[in-house]
């Protein structure tokens, strides 16, 4: 009885710690938004109106409820998806909607409730035990050879298309990005497969190997990422290897979520202080505005156009339902929102998978896509049962793409389905020889 009570007390303290740091994250975002983002990026829609007491209470309440489902340790795909969605989509969307409009806007209640329901659905899958799925077994040598040959073929095709050239500056890669966008869907698909699946696969093979093969494969994986960046100029390609290596370290060390959240809040404030010393917004713009607040802003824009203003929904008429429903806009949702809210015909306002659900299915699409996405990631967990670290590393980049893309685009174009096959077929476990110490 005492042991059971002690265990419940430990769980409660852990949840309380995550809750406190989640509120600290919300307060940090509010401070950065009010003091830095709104004054300098007002033209992008980051306007600021002081929230009322009721709005502050509502924002805190909406932050608290899903925080109880945040996993204490980041060791599963469902937990990874939940953590990304909560901190990069849900919280920023709530914050932006509260401070962008003067006074309480009752029309946003439907958005709040649908997002809250979506988070509860995704949280359910975090704690749902996996089912047993047969694992297709291959010899490691044959598997490694097949991956390397396929990688060589894809990158040979890309080099033949783009040629070998130095990567663009991370501060101004836009010309390269626009040029790559105009080369057609097949080239775009190869770029995403190369950057989201094949380069990560080689990097993961290196992380799962021992020296000296580890050094060789890690160097090859990093070189493949640089090649893709020289072709498409997307900053996410440079970020991807850092994400994979960070998750590899997190899985091995198993730090608590409170430590990760504390580090995240600390890095945000360090970026603020660095920008104050530089006299211009660099780290705050990239780390907070671009990575965190823009997904929240775009979700608000999608909701404003398709729900509040009651414009026609897409019903995926621009995608796989093209022959069934008519696309009344003659363009995709991202370019439509980019044109209407950013006054640019070439701006692609790519939104997260929940915002895309609003564009296609309305506010009811948010929980529906949460069910679909949560179920698919749960299936991936089951396919990787006993090999969770492999699934987390291999699917980290495609799942991160959900924060800026729709579920179906991520599944077919950004490599989520191919990453699922890699996880299912991959022989053995990544860390089976590394004796990783498991923690509760």
Notes on the protein architecture:
The protein has 440 residues and is an all-alpha fold. The protein has a domain at 140-256 and 370-425. It is 69% helix and 0% strand. The chain contains 17 helices and no strands. Helix 5 (140-162) packs antiparallel against helix 7 (185-207), helix 7 runs antiparallel to helix 8 and helix 9 runs antiparallel to helix 15 (388-401). The longest helix is centred in the N-terminal third of the chain and has 39 residues, at 2-40. It is globular and about 60 Å long. 42% of the residues are buried.
Keywords, please?
440 residues, mainly alpha, disordered C terminus
In a few lines, what is going on in this structure?
With 440 residues, the protein is an all-alpha fold. Helices cover 69% and strands 0% of the residues.
List the helices and strands and how they pair.
Elements: H1 2-40, H2 53-67, H3 77-99, H4 109-126, H5 140-162, H6 174-181, H7 185-207, H8 213-232, H9 235-253, H10 257-278, H11 283-308, H12 333-342, H13 353-361, H14 365-383, H15 388-401, H16 407-412, H17 416-425
């Amino acid at each position: 009885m005492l042991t059971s009570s002690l265990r419940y007390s430990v769980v409660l303290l852990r949840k309380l710690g995550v809750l406190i740091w989640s509120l600290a994250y919300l307060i940090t975002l509010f401070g950065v938004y009010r003091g830095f983002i709104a004054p300098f990026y007002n033209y992008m829609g980051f306007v600021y109106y002081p929230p009322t007491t009721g709005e502050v209470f509502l924002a805190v309440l909406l932050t608290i409820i899903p925080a109880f489902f945040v996993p204490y340790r980041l060791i599963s795909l469902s937990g990874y998806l939940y953590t990304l969605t909560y901190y990069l989509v849900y919280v920023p969307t709530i914050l932006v909607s509260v401070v962008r409009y003067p006074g309480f806007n009752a029309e946003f209640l439907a958005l709040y409730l649908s997002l809250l329901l979506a988070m509860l659905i995704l949280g359910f899958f975090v704690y749902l035990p996996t089912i047993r799925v047969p694992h297709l077994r291959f010899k490691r040598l044959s598997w490694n050879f097949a991956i390397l040959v396929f990688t060589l073929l894809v990158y040979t095709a890309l080099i033949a298309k783009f040629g070998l050239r130095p990567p663009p500056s991370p501060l101004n890669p836009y010309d390269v990005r626009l040029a790559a966008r105009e080369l057609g869907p097949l080239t775009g698909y190869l770029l995403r497969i190369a950057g989201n699946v094949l380069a990560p696969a080689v990097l993961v093979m290196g992380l799962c190997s021992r020296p000296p093969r580890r050094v060789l494969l890690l160097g090859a994986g990093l070189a493949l990422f640089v090649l893709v960046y020289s072709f498409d100029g997307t900053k996410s390609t440079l970020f991807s290897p850092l994400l994979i290596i960070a998750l590899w370290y997190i899985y091995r060390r198993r730090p608590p979520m409170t430590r990760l959240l504390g580090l995240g809040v600390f890095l945000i404030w360090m970026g603020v202080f660095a920008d104050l010393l530089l006299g211009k917004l660099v780290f705050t713009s990239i780390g907070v505005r671009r990575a965190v607040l823009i997904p929240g802003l775009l979700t608000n824009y999608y909701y404003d156009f398709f729900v509040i203003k009651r414009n026609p929904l897409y019903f995926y008429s621009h995608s796989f339902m093209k022959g069934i429903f008519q696309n009344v806009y003659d363009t995709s949702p991202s370019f439509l929102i980019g044109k209407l809210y950013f006054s640019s015909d070439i701006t692609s306002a790519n939104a997260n998978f929940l915002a895309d659900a609003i564009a296609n299915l309305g506010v009811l699409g948010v929980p529906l896509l949460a069910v679909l996405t949560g179920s698919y990631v749960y299936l991936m967990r089951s396919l990787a049962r006993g090999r969770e670290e492999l699934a987390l590393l291999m699917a980290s980049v495609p799942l991160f793409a959900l924060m800026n893309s729709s579920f179906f685009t991520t599944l077919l174009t950004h490599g989520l389905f191919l990453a699922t096959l890699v996880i299912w077929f991959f022989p053995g476990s990544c860390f089976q020889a590394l004796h990783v110490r498991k923690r509760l």
